[in-house]
Amino acid sequence: MAKRDPAARRAAIVKAAADLVVEVGPDRITHRMVAGRAQVPLGSTTQHFSSIDDLRTQALALLAKEIDDDLDDVRASLAEASGTADALVEQMHDYLTNSRNIAADVCLMSAGAFDDDLRDLSLRWQNTLIEVLTDYVGSDNALALAILTDGVVVHAALHKTAVSKDFLYTLVAPFMAQK
User: Fold this and answer.
1) Where do the domains of the chain lie, and which CATH numbers do they carry?
2) Does the keyword field hold DNA-binding (predicted)?
């Protein structure tokens, strides 16, 4: 990062904050922690962000963007496989075995549950998943699968492990067979 590149410095700060959010939780990050992780002077965090809440919101937005990218992969995989349960299970399992995904998802859920200003950001992934799945299973089943996904994400977070592909298939297949 160039010493005098404010955009790169700001991006490094947001990335560091996002990394810390998934490591320690959104409510535990501080300007000092973020500055240390980003390897920038402490004043840079307060120069670029009006408050720790502003920085936290930007970090959560970056994590939501990462989840959006994962949903693009789900969309592509389902299109390639004509919306099969196997394709969805494979994508879900890959997602559930990535600890960063799980932590980011739970942080976003929690943030949206307690902060009205973050609710739309928190719901973005679920709404997109429903949109992706609706063409294959209809809107009601897409909603059911999104809710089911929330549950397996929370399960993975609490148990520190994903459920098996076979178990995911048992959960998902009945919804994929209907439209």
Assistant:
1) 6-176 (1.10.357.10)
2) yes
pLDDT value at 1 more than 90: no
- Return the closest-CA partner of residue 18 out of 1, 37, 3, 5: 37
Residue 176 pLDDT level (bands cut at 50, 70, 90): confident
User: Closest Cα partner for 156 from 113, 71, 93?
Assistant: 93
> Residue 14 pLDDT > 80, yes or no?
yes
- Find out whether 124 and 61 touch, Cβ atoms under 8 Å: no
Token pair in block for residue 105: 């998802």
The answer to whether 41 and 32 have CB atoms below 8 angstroms apart is: no
Coil, strand or helix at 50: coil
Per residue in 78-98, pLDDT (tens digit) is 999 998 999 999 999 999 999
User: Residue 26 has which token pair?
Assistant: 């959104």
